[in-house]
Amino acid sequence: MQKHGSAMPLSLFRAGETVTVCRVRGNEDMKRHLQEIGFVDGAEVHVVSSSASNVIVLVKGARFGLDSKVAQHIMAA
User: Fold this and answer.
1) Is residue 43 in some structural domain?
2) Which domain holds residue 23?
3) What is the C-alpha separation between 77 and 65, in angstroms, rounded?
4) CATH code at position 64
């Protein structure tokens, strides 16, 4: 796991990594939607698979597929 000071977009992490959400960027609708499905500060996220176009993650026991453009708005370390 990375140091908390080096947050980077969720889209850059590799499959098998478990990271912690530091912040969610984007417009209010996007931030609200991501927070409703579990992407809140301090949430633990396990990257199941990652490709150039999408990221599959496990958050609070639920599996989600995110477009890589959306995953870029989730900053994690």
Assistant:
1) yes
2) 8-76
3) 19
4) 2.30.30.90
What is the pLDDT at residue 6? 86
pLDDT of residue 1: 45
Residue 3 resides in a domain = no
Secondary structure of the chain as H, E, C letters: CCCCCCCEEHHHCCCCCEEEEEEECCCHHHHHHHHHCCCCCCCEEEEEEECCCEEEEEECCEEEEEEHHHHCCEEEC
Whole-model pTM: value is 0.89
**What distance in Å separates the CA atoms of residue 12 and residue 71, rounded to the nearest whole number?**
9
Question: Which tens digits make up the pLDDT trace of 12-31?
Answer: 999 999 999 999 999 999 99
| Number of domains composing the chain | 1
* 15 lies in some domain: yes
